[in-house]
């Protein structure tokens, strides 16, 4: 991928309560910001990106809400890149690539499989204080 996250000109941040409706809110916000940034809803990366985002927000709501009352989605984009992160304040750091080789499907395995099939990357980044994390997805446009 040619763009570094720091250099992507478009940014948006959404923070919401870690409840079931957060998934719908995150997806709707994603669609809205992509249109505002000139990225067509019909672009072949958009539907898989929405599925990936939905899985990550669902995981935060299901598994982190007890320690993280809010979930935050950070969006960034440039001419050839769309990146987003789902952040919560639960300290557990999932192993993304171990989940893609484990038996079964869904959840993080789906996230990793879709991300890699699109030529993207998935990275878990711990908060500086060790009490939370962000899962960053970067996809080519």
What does this structure look like?
GO terms for molecular function: ATP binding; protein serine/threonine kinase activity. InterPro entries: Anti-sigma-factor_SerPK, HATPase_C_sf, HATPase_dom. Keywords: ATP-binding, Kinase, Nucleotide-binding, Serine/threonine-protein kinase, Transferase. This is ATP-binding protein. Pfam families: HATPase_c. With 141 residues, this protein is of the alpha+beta class. It has one domain: 2-Layer Sandwich (Heat Shock Protein 90), CATH 3.30.565.10. The chain is 37% helix and 28% strand. The protein is globular, with a radius of gyration of 14 Å. The protein has helices at 21-36, 46-64, 96-101, 107-117; strands at 10-17, 70-78, 81-88, 121-126, 133-140. The protein has a five-stranded antiparallel sheet with strand order 1-2-3-5-4. It is built from four helices and five strands, in the order βααββααββ. The termini are close together. The longest helix is centred in the middle third of the chain and has 19 residues, at 46-64. Strand 4 and strand 5 form a beta hairpin.
């Amino acid at each position: 991928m040619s763009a570094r996250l720091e250099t992507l000109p478009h940014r948006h941040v959404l923070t919401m309560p870690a409840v079931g409706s957060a998934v719908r809110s995150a997806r709707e916000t994603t669609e809205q910001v992509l249109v505002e940034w000139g990225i067509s809803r019909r672009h072949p990366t958009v539907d898989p990106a929405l599925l990936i985002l939905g899985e990550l927000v669902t995981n935060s709501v299901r598994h982190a809400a007890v320690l993280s009352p809010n979930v935050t989605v950070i969006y960034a984009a440039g001419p050839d890149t769309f990146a987003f992160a789902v952040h919560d304040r639960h300290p557990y750091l999932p192993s993304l690539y171990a989940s893609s080789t484990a038996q079964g499907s869904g959840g993080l395995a789906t996230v990793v499989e879709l991300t890699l099939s699109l030529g993207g990357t998935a990275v878990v980044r711990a908060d500086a204080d060790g009490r939370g994390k962000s899962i960053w997805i970067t996809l080519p446009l």
